């Protein structure tokens, strides 16, 4: 029995393009982001992958990315579950702020700590550790059981919610996951054993 799990970060958003902290705000995809999502669908189609169920966040950039991928696969009617547990990390008070402006206001070192430490959140926001604390229980309760039953599963979500999953799947340390960059619209294909451990991983951005 195949136990397939595919993770895809959404295509480039309007706020990615403007270098803004996005978090739970809901900008749409850029033209490039749309193209990235379509390309992701084409890559999965070339590999002859199909899915039994899809998960995404409550944010439209991830939902639109998923819709475009499924359209390429001819699976527009696929059962899709949306949940804010898969939302991007909440950047709190710096949401909507240009990253360069944030460095000028708070100092480069402080902004670097907020962005790249594991457990230090920005004011009013979430750290990666806090993001993982909502993503991983949802994964274990709602997603992993379906994968283990043989449901081929795709998740379209966000850089940090997916980092939380990758940290768990690949047994990475808090230091290792902070160095992991996820390309927009680039599928990562995992095949799991009967206990949910990763047997193989294929990163289509590589």
From TrEMBL:
What the entry lists under PROSITE patterns is as follows: PG_MUTASE
The GO molecular function terms of this record are:
phosphoglycerate mutase activity
Reaction catalysed by this chain? (2R)-2-phosphoglycerate = (2R)-3-phosphoglycerate
**Cross-referenced InterPro entries, in alphabetical order?**
His_Pase_superF_clade-1 (IPR013078), His_PPase_superfam (IPR029033), PG/BPGM_mutase_AS (IPR001345), Phosphogly_mut1 (IPR005952)
CDD domains, A to Z = HP_PGM_like
Entry keyword set? Gluconeogenesis, Glycolysis, Isomerase
User: Pfam family of this protein, just one?
Assistant: His_Phos_1
Return the annotated site residues (Transition state stabilizer).
158
Q: Name one GO biological process term.
A: gluconeogenesis
Q: What is its EC number?
A: 5.4.2.11
Would I find Isomerase among this entry's keywords?
A: yes
Entry annotation: catalytic residues: 10, 88
The annotated pathway is: Carbohydrate degradation; glycolysis; pyruvate from D-glyceraldehyde 3-phosphate: step 3/5
What residue ranges carry the coiled-coil annotation?
none
Protein family (similarity comment): Belongs to the phosphoglycerate mutase family. BPG-dependent PGAM subfamily.
PANTHER family named among the record's database cross-references = PHOSPHOGLYCERATE MUTASE (PTHR11931)
The task this protein performs is described as: Catalyzes the interconversion of 2-phosphoglycerate and 3-phosphoglycerate.
Entry protein name:
2,3-bisphosphoglycerate-dependent phosphoglycerate mutase
**Which organism encodes this protein?**
Roseibium aquae
